[in-house]
Amino acid sequence: MFDVSIEDAIPPAFLYSLLALIVAYHIFAPLCSTVKQQSWILTTISSAAMSLSSLPLFFLYASSRGDLRGIRSTPWTESTGRFFQAYLVTDLLMGVIYYRSKVNLLTGWIHHTIYIFIVEYACRQGWSHLFALCAVMEIPTFLLAIASLNPRFRSDVVFAMSFLATRIILHVFLCVSMVASRHDVSNDSYGPGLIMACIFPLHAFWFYGSLKGFVKRAKSPKPQPVSQGTVTASGFTSLRARSWMLPRRRGSLRQAVRAWDRLELRKAAGRFGDVQRRLRASIPAAREQVYAYVGLERPPSGEPQQTGAKTEFSF
Description:
Elements: H1 6-9, H2 12-28, H3 35-39, H4 41-63, H5 75-97, H6 105-124, H7 128-134, H8 139-149, H9 156-180, H10 182-185, H11 191-219, H12 239-262, H13 265-282, H14 284-293
Helix pairs in contact: 2-5, 4-5, 4-7, 4-8, 5-6, 5-7, 8-9, 9-11
């Protein structure tokens, strides 16, 4: 009753790309230590493939000084659009299963759904070459994705410059070129130019947010490293400082004990105590004379003499 083949319902390029991206995610996901890194795997693969695919068209566009008439739709540009559709679907599918917290409403569900229909519309209208050319704007996405996988590759300056060059300046030039050359490249349709004009505010908003984040991080004070022996805010000496000081204290204590034994100060202290006890025992008469001289009489029972205030005297 319905004579529709599976190739017409689901383009082979989309199906093969979908399966390849799913397999690639499950290969690289175990190598990531955080959910955030896992959420950037597919974006890194897609942005790299789309950027490389767009470079021949971009060089042709730049060499012709913005003339789009030399660029035509081919099976390659069609497959490029289908691959991007497969990435959008796979990212949502894997996000629901593995990294749901990283798929937000605006940059996830709304962005991906809109672009699925934009690519479908472009392919059906024969504008896949225009979409493949615009894929050069995935270069800043690749820089952001690779930095999310490995912070060593992060450079705010490089990202900001690439974003400004592609998604702001180049975006404006492409929009103007599509409107000016609409008779030759889009069958006199304003569709490509209108789509580019509607997307531009989103790119401008993202660029403003990036600059705002850069300024905020630049103004925030950098944390000062805790030096050895200093006390932190919690009131405790750092573990590294304590581990460095304790061996020195133990060594000093051992040296003091050895010096005490070497000089025989322990025996000298004992002999001095014996002399002191003998001296006290040998002069009881002198002690009684001192008591009598200051006007005190020591009771025979050894109890202290009460003199106004309650005071205890002892020698």
